[in-house]
Amino acid sequence: MDVNGTEIKTVGFQRFGFDCEVPIDVLRSLYLRPHYVTTSSDGLTNGVFSDENAKEEEQHARFIQGNTAYQSKSIYHPDTQSISYTTLSRFPPVKLLPPYGRKRILVTGGAGFVGSHLVDRLMILGHEVTVLDNFFTGSKTTVSHWIGHPNFEMIRHDVVEPFMIECDQIYHLACPASPPHYQFNAVKTIKTSFMGTLNMLGLAKRTKARFLITSTSEIYGDPEVHPQQEDYWGHVNPIGPRACYDEGKRVAETLTYGFHRQDGVDVRVARIFNTYGPRMNPADGRVVSNFIVQALRGEDMTLYGDGTQTRSFQYIHDLIDGLIALMNSDETRPVNIGNGDEFTIGDFAKLVRDIVYKVQREDGVEPQKVNIVHKPMPTDDPQKRRPDTTRAKEVLQWQPCWTVNMGLEEMVRYYKAKMTEGSI
Ligand SMILES: NC(=O)c1ccc[n+]([C@@H]2O[C@H](COP(=O)([O-])OP(=O)(O)OC[C@H]3O[C@@H](n4cnc5c(N)ncnc54)[C@H](O)[C@@H]3O)[C@@H](O)[C@H]2O)c1
Question: How far is the CA of 342 from the centre of ligand 1 (A)?
Answer without folding.
Answer: 24
